[in-house]
Each structure stands twice: as C-alpha cells, then as structure tokens.
Write a structure and sequence with these properties.
Low-confidence stretches: none
Largest sheet: 7 strands, mixed
Keywords: Cytoplasm, DNA damage, DNA excision, DNA repair, Excision nuclease, SOS response
Subunit structure: Interacts with UvrB in an incision complex.
InterPro entries: GIY-YIG_endonuc, GIY-YIG_endonuc_sf, GIY-YIG_UvrC_Cho, RuvA_2-like, UVR_dom, UVR_dom_sf, UvrABC_protein_C, UvrC
Main location: cytoplasm
Oligomer: single chain
Subcellular location: Cytoplasm
Number of domains: 5
Number of helices: 19
CATH class of the largest domain: Alpha Beta
C-alpha cells in the first residue's frame, strides 16, 4: 500500500477506489482519518456540500492543507486500516473510545513446567496470552478456578532439567499445603504436569465442556478401580467447575459464539455495550463511551465501536447482534437486528447495560450530584481508589496513662457520619498499653462480624496512626482473608501523612484539599468517640471501685446501682426505700452503713 498526497483543491483528482484518507493542517499535524468505499466521492463531499454540515465539520475543512490517501483492496480493509491509524495517532477530529486503561491478560509462559500468571504487558515470545479481561475481578475468578482445579506452580524458578537433576531447589509451602506437586525436586514429571496445563488452556479459551468431560472421565476411572478417595477428589473438582459455570449467565446452549453491540446516545456522547457470548454463556461484558466529534450518526458511532472493541478483545465471532440497522456492511460478518427469541433478549440485556452506564455517567458528571459526591470523587482520585469511597470506617485507640484500653470505630456514608453504625470496643486479648496489638484485635473483630453477618465491607478503611498501626490492621485483614478486597490507609497526625500498606513512603494531599479535610474530620470524630468512651469507662470503674470497697457489695450490685443512679452523689442523696427497690433491703442496709463509715472517716 503506497500513500499519495493531494492539496484540498485537487480533491477531484482522487481515484474512485476504496481506501483511507488523512487530513493534515498547516503545521502538518494529522487532524482526521477516514475510510471510504470511493475516495473521490467521500473526500469531495467535504468540499462541495454547503448545507447540512455542522460547524465542527466546517471548522475542520478550513484547517485542511494536505490530503494523504492509501488505496486498499476492499471497504473492509479500509475499515481495519482506519481503526489501526486512529488507535495509533488519535487525531483530534476522530471519534475516540474514552477508555484508555490497559486491560489484564493471563500469560501461559513458554518454558519447562509453564506458569500461568496475570500481566498487563504483552511481550512477544514470552508465551501465549489469554484475554484481555474486562476487569481484574473477572481475570482473578478464572485464575482462582484454574488454581483450584490444577496443581500449577506459582514460583518463578528456572526448572530446567539439569537444574532439577542437580537438586538446586527445595519444595516450598505451596507443596506442603497441596497446591503444588514439587516439580522443582523432581517429584512431578513434566508429562503429568502438561496434562493439567492442557486442561487449563481449554478453560482459558472458554471451553469448559472439555475440562468437565476430562474430570468426569477421571472420576469414573478411579471409581472403577475402587480408588474412592481419588474419585471424590475428581468429583470435587467437577463440582467446582460446574459452580463456576453456574455463575455465568447461560444464554442458550444452541447459541454458540456471537457478539452483541448496542448503542444509546445524547447530544455529545454515545455509550456502547459489548456482550461476548462463548459456548452459550456470557463471558465478557464491557461498556465504553464515545465522544462525538463531527455530528456522526448512531450507525457510524456503533460501527466504530464494533471494530475497535472486537480488535481490543480479540473477538472472531462470525455473528453480531445490534439494536440499530447499520448503514454499512462488514465483509465476512453476519450482522442482525433480532426481533424475537433469545437473541432479542440478549440485545435487550445489552441495551439495559448501556442505558445504566449512561445514567451512572450523568450522575458522576454532576447532573444530579451535590457537594458530598464531588468531595468523595476527589478523595477517590487522590488515593487512586477503584471505587467511590461512599462507605468509610475509621478506627482509633484510647488508653490514657495505660489504663482501661478501649477503641472506637466511626462510620461515614456518602461523606456524612452514620451514628447508628458507630461501635465501641473493650480490648479483650491485650494486656497493657499496646496500640498495635489493640488495633489488630478491634479491626479483626469488626470485619469478622461483618463477614459472619454477610454485611457489605466498607469501600475504605482509615486507621488513626502511622505505619505501625496500619501494619497491625493489615495483619487482621490478612488473617480474615480479605486483605486486598478493601483499600486501607493510615493517617499520621503530626504531618497529616497518608500511608499505604507495604509502602514505606507516605503521600501528602494538599492541605487545602476538601478530600484531606474529610479524612481529618473522620479521624477527629473517631478520636473524639474513643476519648469519650474512655472517660466513661474510667468514671464507671472509679465509681464501681468505691462501692466494691464496702464489704458485702460486689461488682454486680455496684453495676445495678450505677445503671440506676448514674453517680455516687445521687446514691448518697437517695432515700433508702428507693435503693431497696434496686438492690433489696439487706444490701441497702450494708451499703448505707458502709457509706456512713466512709463519710465519717
């Protein structure tokens, strides 16, 4: 394919053939890339049309100083070339997918005893990449399934035959807990290891049926040999595979592989949802946003999204379902607008997702948003959080002079205190003033309770303290198996430094930032709540001690009096009949005699 150059005045000299055209401005900057079935007719339309052209298109035409064309064999080739050029150069007048993040892949390495691990970088020659996955969660679900089914190593050792033969390695914890069969010491041969890898590849490709048949056959073979423990292990793996498959939305076994694209638009933006159907199940869903540049039609916007998303997610499905008729066909693809049946239901589901995404974007943009969400969005940005921190919980300890150690947890929902969710904690397992151990206890107690009650975890945990308190809290989350599921930070008082787990260097948020002020308010509220509780506990303990010093008055009696009268002064002022109603006649006589002796001393 060779490029040719023309001036705007020479547009009538362009060939009547399919190809790609590029517009350059006076600074030789590429400002637009387009494709055409006929370059001559398409480019001419920009310069001869006087009506029905919006102001953005007129402004672009005024900037054009040079036209470059590239001839191709077909309109479909032009579409693919246009997509590659736009993705690479991102001209200012072209439609761009507002989705710049890199997506995760699972890499099956090319080496002895291959590994499977996540990555965002594709490096040629390292192995086979599967994906991309629309989210880290989706990728981890597949990775967890594979690691639950097969004993594939997670170490990065070079397991060359000669190194294994020289006994350079020793098995690690993964071997002892049953997650690895010890190929590093030669305890598992590579042929047996590769059988697991072959089955894992089927799952990575979305062919769960092959893996299910494999485990079912192994289970039956073991049962026929009366190896019932082995048969049970294969049955457990089969159950795990079926449980995973049940979580996928099964569309219809007769619907094999196809893609679904739907579009909704407003004045400035378009939102396109993509559902990828593999072996009758939805195994990927993604919604993207496109910004209109030259008053493009819905058909043009959807076609752009189809080409780019199929390229991005490596889709080769021969059939595409859409919610609107396309103005152009795509060579080699069957594009349908279904009216009834399961395929229509798929289009409706996709459209529902596109509309929901549009609504959420409107909320995030502030159409129906107030200050509290703006501050939370700022906090999300400052802390690089994946989700809006609309549920924050903050912990603080209090043990003034080492006595009566207690802790508090305050909860903020949508940036406002949720007083009913506040919690006090008496430290039970720690003796003496040990802030670190106390923090481990209370954080562990809080989230163990939430997990048992199946209540939602917060979107952000804040620890009042520096690296030490934060590390202790992280330990509690690790013990519960939820470390990494909830973002957690520590905020040190002196310099208002923000610490992240396993990072020795803090970050500093602008002192005038609304997000830092929100964190300070939450931290100060947790401190106030802890101090108030500590004072109450000290007061109650001091009161209880004075009463229990009277012979015959135990802690139970003192607690009843405290609950009813609130203070020692009110007990002394109370009539004996009133006291008798609380602790009985005999105890009242003992109490009053003891109080009289104390006042006489």
């Amino acid at each position: 394919m060779e490029a040719s150059f023309y001036t705007p005045e020479e547009y009538n000299l362009l060939p009547d053939q399919p190809g790609v055209y590029k517009y350059y401005n006076e600074s030789k900057e590429l400002i637009y890339v387009g494709k055409a079935k006929s370059l001559k007719k398409r480019v001419a339309s920009y310069f001869v049309k006087n009506t029905g052209v919006n102001h953005k298109t007129r402004r672009m035409v005024r900037e054009i100083r040079q036209i470059e064309i590239t001839l191709v064999n077909s309109e479909f080739d032009a579409l693919l070339l246009e997509n590659n050029l736009i993705k690479k150069t991102q001209p200012k007048y072209n439609i761009l997918l507002r989705d710049d993040k890199t997506y995760p892949y699972l890499l099956l390495t090319q080496e002895n005893f291959p590994q499977i691990f996540p990555t965002r970088k594709m490096i040629k020659g390292r192995g086979t990449y599967f994906g991309p996955f629309a989210s880290v969660k989706a990728m981890n679900n597949v990775l967890d399934l594979i690691r639950g089914l097969f004993t594939i190593r997670t170490c990065k050792l070079d397991l060359s035959p000669y190194k294994i033969a020289e006994q350079k390695y020793k098995v690690c914890l993964e071997y002892h807990i049953g997650n690895c069969l010890g190929p590093c010491e030669g305890l598992q041969g590579e042929p047996a290891y590769m059988k697991d890898i072959e089955q894992a590849k089927h799952i990575l490709k979305g062919n769960l049926g092959i893996a299910k048949s494999y485990f079912k056959q192994r289970m039956q073979e073991a049962a026929e040999k009366y190896e019932f423990e082995m048969a049970q292990r294969f049955k457990d793996k089969l159950d795990l595979l079926e449980k995973y498959q049940a979580k996928s939305m099964v569309v219809n076994p007769s619907i094999r592989d196809l893609d679904v694209f739907t579009i909704v638009t407003d004045d400035k933006l378009a939102f396109v949802n993509f559902l990828k159907i593999k072996n009758g199940s939805i195994n990927l869903t993604k919604t993207v946003e496109l910004k209109k540049k030259l008053d493009e039609t819905e058909s043009e916007l959807l076609l752009t999204a189809i080409v780019r998303l199929r390229d991005q997610f490596n889709s080769e499905s021969p059939e595409i379902l859409v919610n609107i008729e396309l103005e152009e066909a795509i060579e080699g693809l069957n594009i349908l607008v279904p009216k009834i049946g399961d395929k229509r239901h798929l289009v409706d589901l996709s459209l529902k997702n596109a509309k929901y995404y549009k609504k959420e974007k409107a909320l995030a943009a502030g159409d129906v948003q107030d200050k509290k969400f703006r501050v939370l969005k700022q906090l999300q940005s400052d802390l690089s959080l994946k989700e809006l921190p609309d549920h924050i919980e903050c912990f603080d300890n209090s043990n003034i002079q080492g006595t009566n150690p207690v802790a508090s947890m305050v909860c903020y929902i949508n940036g406002k205190p949720a007083n009913k969710e506040y919690r006090h904690y008496h430290i039970k397992t720690v003796e003496g003033p040990n802030d670190f151990a106390s923090m481990t206890e209370v954080v562990g107690r809080r989230y163990k309770r939430l997990l048992e009650e199946e209540k939602p975890l917060p979107k952000l945990i804040v620890i009042d303290g520096g690296k030490g308190q934060l590390s202790s809290s992280v330990e509690a989350l690790k013990n519960l198996g939820i470390y990494g599921q909830v973002p957690i930070i520590g905020i040190a008082k002196r310099l208002e430094e923000i610490y992240f787990p396993e990072d020795s260097y803090p970050i500093h948020i602008d002192k005038k930032s609304e997000s830092l002020r929100l964190l300070q308010r939450i931290r100060d509220e947790a401190h106030r709540f802890a101090i108030t509780f500590h004072r109450d506990v000290r007061s109650k303990n001091a009161f209880g001690t004075q009463l229990t010093e009277i012979e015959g008055i135990g802690s139970g009696t003192a607690e009843k009096l405290l609950k009813h009268f609130k203070s020692l002064k009110k007990i002394k002022e109370a009539k004996s009949e009133e006291i008798e109603q609380v602790i009985g006649k005999n105890k009242t006589a003992i109490l009053l005699e003891g109080l009289n002796k104390k006042s006489g001393d």
